[in-house]
Amino acid sequence: MAPPHDLRERMAEHGFESNEDYAFPIRCLLESPTRELRALNIEGDSDRRKTAFATALAGALGWHVIYHDFSEQSPPLPEVILPPSRDELGREEPPIDRLDQVVSEACAYSEGVTTALILDQLQMADFREHLRVHRLICDRSWTFRGARFYANASNLRVLLISEEPLFHSLQRVSFRVWVGRASARQIDYQPSDFGLAETAQPLFAALRELFQHLGTGPTRSELARVLHAIAHQVRGADDLVHGLYGWTEGLDRQRLLEPATRPLLERVVESALTWQDQEVIGIGPLEER
Question: CATH top-level class for 7-178?
């Protein structure tokens, strides 16, 4: 299934908001010819934002999620706890490893529904597990304790997240996508996008210049919150620093405090005061439109 045209909006509804449009890379993943399982290598400088990306992508596309975090020291208990089993000689079998459990479950689900197997914090996994995941993608099957579980290649997607470069063979069989800490792409929002008159245009121009200097761009909901803070709370450049840092994810605080940033902050405040004199008296909370 190809990603919808409104993938960015759909992902925002599932907890991941960005100015970047990931529809094209996801289309590359889903439409490229392959005999292997489709695997996505989610890279970036964003720590757990990559996890949010993976879960939101699965939610936006309607995939059933099977999640495993290799950094968990105490994995969650299964819904059904089975009593220990013994073989014919009375020897007790060890419990099923958590990775074996989630991968075999993902294979089973893939027989009926499109499934996302999210393998998070792969840098914490033993190298032998990297080899097993590579075999899963290439052979479309998973083996443990003599049992073999087959994955439906049409339905199972493997999403790989690691804070270190993936094992070379895993990189070769997966499509890479970059998820940054902040949105480098700027969207040219207009006052009308937020229900404001054209008198707010100088303020938007000053904010645009400031964000270009900072090397980031606010998302729609972030800019709505910043505008509300400017209209009701910000009284000077120092207030604006707190408002911007508080509402804009991934913003570099040190860059905000640099002397070169100060004139741009003051320009925003001056534009805001002019705007308030003209339009803002009595304005209610700004809506995210």
Answer: alpha beta
